[in-house]
What does this fold into?
Amino acid sequence: MPSLAYPDLLDSDFVFEALLGHGMFADKLPSCFSSEGLLEFAKKGKLSKDCDGSHAYVEYQATRNTNIPRQLAIPHPKPYWELCYCVKSNWELINRHIGQPEKFNFCHVRRIRDKKRIFEMSYTGSERWQQEELLLDYALGCKYVVSADISTFFPSVYAHSIPWAVKGKVWAKQHRCNSFNKKKNKGENCKTNDKQPCPCEKGDLWPNDLDTISRSIKDDETNGLLIGPHTSNIISEIILSRVDLALQEKGFLKVIRHVDDYLFFAKDENEANDFLRTLVLELKEYELILNAKKTRIVPYQDFTDYDWVGRLKQFSFPEREEIGFTSVSLYIDYARSLSMENNDFAPLNYAIKVIAKKNLSTRARRLYIKKITQIALSCPYLLPLLEEYVFFFADNDYFLEKFLSHLFERSIQRGSMDSLAFVFHYAIKYGVKLEDFDCGQVVHFNDCVSMLLAHKYFCHQNMTGKIDIFRKKANELLGFSKRNQDKFWLFLYEVLDADKLSGFLRELKEENVCFLKAQNV
It folds into this structure.
């Protein structure tokens, strides 16, 4: 019997609760969002388990570590619930399917200590020791390292490739039925070569069910998994675990993968090139391609020199009870220089998390906050880190008024909607009163998340006139098509009363389900 990919996740109910209640909103979003209310509603058993059609999703442009926007998604709650339920109902089969090869991937769902969610991009748990040991093992006799990245991976995943990966293309093309439209006799959804009834039992149809709901959550589009919801990290492994297996069967064992990033440690340049050709062919089976700009073969020595984490770890802080600002500033400047050198702000992200664990002097704490907030003005990628890793150093919140004022101005100038969302999020969370501004500037960008948080900010400030501007915008959106309303479902849901909504959203609203944490309502 195949081994389990995630032996720490045997309980399908736990997986369901983690996905539905704690995996709907990406961690790059402001931390005010939560789907725990949806989970509690689902536990009441009132929801239909059948797929009821497709829905569009809310788009959110989050700045990446390369300072370039990436589109994240907030799925409509109905198809997202259906997808979580489908994963729960077939969890053992999914767990065993992904576990068939020896795992290459070190960035996957898992139990996370003291947390209810099961995925964090930077969390490897105890596997970090295994990965560290493998890196040393693979280095022995290694002369070249292949570094490869799948081009726009999540947006490129073809929904029909889910059953391809589980059952094969021949089976998938013959049996297009699913548990929602299953037909006992041969018909348009089951294209066998004879007149016999479809041999598929319900348990055999879970790959098709995932295919169907993966499309319904994305407005019935066949290309792409949503970036953000944790379900995508499970579905993607269904496909890439087959690629891993094919690589292993062809003798390529010294592989480490982080979602869609591959490292292969080759004994010579010929083996490196063989691996790359094989990877290209195996990905092609699922209509995926490599990113040519990020694919390279380098001598092992050059690969080790490229490790910015190792270079940051070599920085020596003074051995004293409190660290002064000079040392802190030098460390941040060094991390910033590595970020510029690599065109990647991940080193600065890493450094901020390191400093958060240090004991800084009173002066260092004060100046450190000034330094990081100044950098964050031009690097929105850092904004989600501030409340957990930086702001706690402050003795008071006075600095936020000036910081948020500058951030608002830059957000409007650059059209940076994630920055704008964080302006209102931090203003609400820390009780900061912003300088007066024209609400039309916010409405003009037509961004769901920033409009919602601006509305909530004015609710906290009891500014009725400003609140009415956003209510008017919400009522205008009701005149749009269903698809376009779906793109603003979260804004409509939180701003309007239940009698203005319809269908599933109205049902949730009448049950007082909220997608904002209590302090942000």
Observations:
- The chain has 25 helices and six strands.
- The mean pLDDT is 91.
- The two ends are 49 Å apart (CA to CA).
- The beta strands are 58-63, 69-74, 144-149, 255-258, 261-266, 296-299.
